[in-house]
Structures are given as C-alpha cells and as structure tokens.
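User: I'm new to structure prediction. If I give you an amino acid sequence, what do you actually give back? Let's try with this one:
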Amino acid sequence: MVKIEWDIKLGFQDVLIRPKRSQMRSRKDVDLVRTYRFLHSDRVWTGVPVVAANMDTTGTFEMARAFAQQKCMVAVHKHYTLEQWAEFVNTEEKNNNAEIFNYVAVSSGTSNADFDKISQILSRHKQLSFICLDIANGYSEHFAEYIKRVRTAFPKHIIMAGNVVTQEMTEQLLLSGADIVKVGIGPGSVCTTRKKTGVGYPQLSAVLECADAAHGLGGLIVSDGGCTMPGDFGKAFGGGSDFVMAGGMFSGYDESGGDLIVCPSTGKQYKQFYGMSSEVAMQKHSGGVANYRASEGKAVLVP
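Assistant: Good question. You get back a string of structure tokens that encode the predicted 3D arrangement of the chain. For your 303 residues, that looks like this:
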C-alpha cells in the first residue's frame, strides 16, 4: 500500500541558520579539525571532515595531494589501475609525504572484479586505511552483503558506504559493517536520478533523519551531494552530518579531472564535469550505456 509522508521535507535551499550568542571573537578562532573514533574499525582519525567525491573529475590523486595539505579527505575514484596506485603511493613515500594516506579513501563498486581490485590495492599498500563503497542503489540486499564481505576481509579498515536517505537503511548499513554511511540520492548538480527515476529525498531532511539513526548506534554519516555554496556545508554539519562530501564545488580546478576545453571564439578555458552515471562517464569506463538502463547524469562545462 502506498504511503504518503505529509511532513515537510527540506533541502539546503529551504533553510537558513539562525544566529545565536557566541563567545568567539573572530572567525579565526574557529577550529575546523575534528576527531572521530569509528564504530567497527575502532580507529581514531583527526582532520577536517570535508571530502571530495569519488568521481573521476574530483577524486583524483592531484586533488588528494591538495586536500591533504588542508587535512581534508578525497575519495579516490575506482578507475585508477593497480599500477597507477603503486606509482602514487611510491611517489608520496619518496617525497616523505606519508601523512597523505590518512586522507585518502580507496573506492569500490560491488562486483567480484571490484572486490579483487580493492583487495590487491589494500594488500599491497597497507598505508591506506579508508574504503569507500559506492553504488547507485544502497537499498539492495546485495549491497549490505557486500559490506559484510568487505568488513570480514578488512576488519581494521574504515568503511564508508552508501548511498541511502532513510533511517532504517542507515542502521542496516552500519549493522552490516559500515563505519560511515553516505547519505544522499539525487541532490548532486550533475545527477539526474530524481528526474529519470522519481526516487530521492530532500538532502537536509535526509541528513537530519539519518544522522539521528547513525548516532544512536555509534556510527557516523557523510552528507553526499547538494552543496551549491559554502553555506550549505554549514547547514549539513548543523543538521548532524559528521562529514560533508561534494563534487561540483571541487570541479574545474587544475587538480580536477575532466577534459580541458577551449572556446574557439573567446579562447576561454573550461573543464568538463559530469555525473558518474552520465552517458559521458559510461562511454569512458563501460563502453556505453547498457541497453537495460538510461543515463542518470549530465555533463557540464565549468569555467
């Protein structure tokens, strides 16, 4: 039976943060660094809880180097080869930059090939402690089973997994072995899932509800997507998110991926930014859009 929820659900654009009295005298007194102990791995991490999304236009090694300097994280996209990972790790060690590995997550899908690849990366490079498990439909029973598989194989690694937008699935992923649940379906600037499938949830409400569920079990969440301006990060944290992940706001930079395109009439330079379920991404990594599905993303040019 279809159930309609009549409660108001909110996105970041629907709210503002009401100010209140503070003892801080200046913005310079604000400390962005947080320390977290994770539910299953029992590891402790200290840093700025801002994450560049695991898209091939933002989750790059170049971004990881830039973000680590600010103690921020990058979820490195899953399309780097074993050889590219080896080169990256070896280069950073030669440069006495081992601290960078505290701020890099290795991303994976849920196929057997994905599991084999992430297993090889993590077994060869034990400096890496973060894992990002990412699929479009975090509500699949298969996904919960995959998290259990990865947790069994890597009991001391920190696992970030998603995406979901409701309390019961936040709890399910945590109970399956995730330390951090990725929250967000369709809010991204180059995601068209909501238009193509009708599935989604306003991002701030998703954060509020999923944070409540996660914190009740001792887990954490990361708000993934929907930030279009710096103030949205504050709203996500204010809503209870422990980390905030973004893609579009970190696109278009020298360290970002994406083709560099020059306008022939003006000479102005742009970088291509696209969703990982877009036709552009699937042509690049999968040989095209499979005949059983449609693309759920778009491509844009970022100045």
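You can read the tokens as a compact description of the fold. Here is one thing that stands out. The chain has a mean pLDDT of 93.
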